[in-house]
Design brief:
With 113 residues, this protein is α+β, with helices and mostly antiparallel strands. 35% of the residues lie in helices and 11% in strands. α1 packs parallel to α4.
């Protein structure tokens, strides 16, 4: 329900790309978004944190993890291009509809800065 609310509130926003999920058949433990403007993630994270909204960074490219260092010469250009613009929004069962609306409204304000 929370993921669906995020989707409904953020859908058709030209500063964010949402990922396609079957919200009826999965349990979202995080809600990732892709920021369209490059190099804006840290700014958005810091501004939201000032407002009491913690965000996360997930999906670090596996082939760049230290565990794999030196084991492959693989480059995944799309993964490396997308990762710096991924941001995960708060997601937990205690979020109310009002909480999600507040998070989205503040995110949209920050994105306009």
């Amino acid at each position: 329900e929370i993921a669906s609310q995020y989707k409904n509130l953020l859908n058709n926003n030209d500063e964010i790309k949402l990922f396609s999920f079957d919200y009826q058949n999965i349990v979202m433990h995080i809600f990732p978004i892709l920021l369209i403007k490059e190099n804006k993630r840290e700014f958005v994270r810091e501004e939201l944190l000032k407002l009491g909204i913690q965000t996360g960074i997930h999906y670090f490219p596996n082939h760049l993890l230290s565990f794999y260092k030196g084991t492959t010469k693989l480059t995944l250009k799309n993964t490396e291009m997308i990762f710096p613009n991924l941001l995960t929004l708060p997601m937990h069962p205690d979020l109310s509809e009002e909480d999600v609306s507040y998070i989205v409204n503040q995110l949209l304000k920050v994105l306009k800065k």
